[in-house]
Design brief:
mainly beta, Neuraminidase, 2 domains, five-stranded antiparallel β-sheet, five-stranded mixed β-sheet, globular, binds calcium ion
Length: 374
């Protein structure tokens, strides 16, 4: 954004120097789309991230507080009327006395699995975790650590009898400028709170089923958002490459049999949280671009639904979005609003919503016109 704004200012200066001077805000690109505020978060829950639509119709949401570790990480839920309630608080990590929940998903056992990414607040060592929230009768009954030893657990996606977790850094030292990350797969039957799996370091663990490489000197951030399509293909965001990689899996879903870069760039500056949604489209949050994109799985065409200069979140403006998930015709966007990429953590703290109008699919998928937003 800096370069874009800078060049725009230079061209303005050549033709209208007086007008440009002192009007830096006027040099910013105009917003795309018109997101609104779906939920105003309480100030202490100022870092929202992972979301998943429950079978009960509620949108479940992970939250923590980047700057105040005394606020417990928690899973909240947004009901059909966009009312926010607490589902469960998460137990602190014994070393850091905090939890930093990012990706979440429900598995076929009915329980909720949560990535506790200690690394996002700068915790050192492989102490990030996978937590299991056991649910009975729709209520949380316990929270346990089931996998320990991630460098940076991030997205969680469940399919069949397994939980898949992206590892944003494998902790492999590489002097060639390549950042290594990957995807772990755990069978539900392996996950036991009484005896958590302890991952082997540097990508040597047997649960690692895919490796990704990122070559971005500014953003050495690898595997991030992840989801599956109805056929069982696995899509993984490669954050620093601004790409999504598609993995065709074997019949059992235990490992990929082929892979390709499915989409890259096209206005995306990075790929963060991702949803292969019920309308057959992919939604991806672009933290660096401060945008939300819709991608057609058939063509790989990127349609930017919303984008605005980094903001405080007023009126639903995007404020460092990290996840976007569809419910009905609405795309819910978590504005994680953490102090990276020149962002200022600032009130309000919000979940934005983008209302889709018309058909959700693009021309390559059906006969409907290009999707529009209002
Ligand atoms: Ca904000
Ligand atoms: Ca902000």
């Amino acid at each position: 954004m800096k370069q874009t704004n800078g060049s725009f200012c230079v061209s303005l200066a050549l033709t209208a120097a007086v007008l440009c001077a002192g009007m830096l805000a006027g040099c910013q690109a105009p917003p795309i789309g018109n997101p609104k505020i779906a939920v105003n978060l309480p100030a202490e829950r100022n870092s929202p991230d992972g979301m998943v639509l429950g079978k009960d119709g509620n949108m479940y949401l992970s939250t923590f507080n980047f700057g105040d570790k005394t606020v417990p990480g928690a899973i909240m839920y947004i009901d059909k009327n966009d009312k926010l309630s607490k589902f469960v608080e998460l137990p602190d990590h014994p070393d850091t006395e905090r939890t930093c929940p990012l990706g979440i998903d429900f598995a076929s056992d009915g329980n909720l699995y949560v990535a506790d990414a200690q690394a996002i607040v700068g915790a050192e060592g492989a102490i990030s975790r996978l937590l299991k929230v056991t649910i009975a009768g729709g209520k949380p009954v316990s929270v346990e650590t089931v996998v320990d030893g991630f460098n940076f657990s991030n997205a969680v996606a469940c399919r069949g009898d397994a939980v898949y977790v992206t590892e944003t850094s494998l902790g492999i030292k590489d002097d060639t400028g390549v950042h290594h990350s990957g995807v772990y797969r755990f069978a539900l039957s392996e996950l036991n709170g009484a005896k958590p799996i302890k991952l082997a370091a540097e990508g040597k663990d047997k649960h690692l089923i895919a490796r990704l490489e990122t070559r971005n000197p500014d953003w050495a951030v690898g595997a991030n958002g992840m989801d599956f399509d109805p056929e069982g293909n696995m899509y993984v965001c490669n954050f620093g490459e601004a790409s999504i990689e598609k993995f065709k899996m074997n019949a059992a879903g235990t490992k990929p049999v082929s892979r390709k870069v499915f989409v890259k760039g096209q206005g995306m500056l990075c790929t963060d949280g991702m949803d292969y949604a019920a309308d057959g489209m992919i939604y991806v949050a672009d933290f660096l671009g401060n945008a939300v994109h819709q991608i057609c799985p058939a063509s790989g065409k990127v349609n930017t639904l919303a984008k605005n200069p980094v903001s405080d979140g007023t009126d639903g403006r995007l404020d460092k979005p990290s996840e976007s998930r569809l419910r009905g015709k609405k795309v819910y966007v978590a504005n994680i609003d953490i102090p990276y990429d020149n962002n200022v953590v600032d009130a309000p703290y919000t979940i934005s919503v983008i209302e889709l109008t018309g058909c959700c699919k693009c021309k390559c998928c059906c006969k409907c016109p290009k999707p529009a937003t209002k």
